[in-house]
What we know:
Elements: H1 2-21, H2 25-31, H3 36-51, H4 58-80, H5 86-112
Helix pairs in contact: 1-2, 1-3, 2-4, 3-4, 4-5
Amino acid sequence: MVIECIVIIGVFVLMEIAFLKSRHKVWALAVLPLGIVPLTNIVIELLVKKLFHAEITDFVGVLVLTIAVAVEAALLGFCSSLIESKRSKASFISISNTFNIALAIILIHNILA
Length: 113
């Protein structure tokens, strides 16, 4: 799932560039925390397992990803406070958190499989 997470982060980087070029700095800041969960998976898989050859138990992997989801949800809530429209803010929070939880479930399933 490392390659998939790298692609997800690449899409978020492209979104950041598009928002910054269109001068929507608030939305660029709001989208920034979305990369935490995929980046956490990359760190677990590439750095810890491949580079350091460390064994990570299933429990530790699930715990780290769960903490990453919680941190990302908190940062999304904080960054969404900059969005002016209540409707846009509610949509952004609900869609972003749904994406985070779905991605975390897929990554946790991959760890446990």
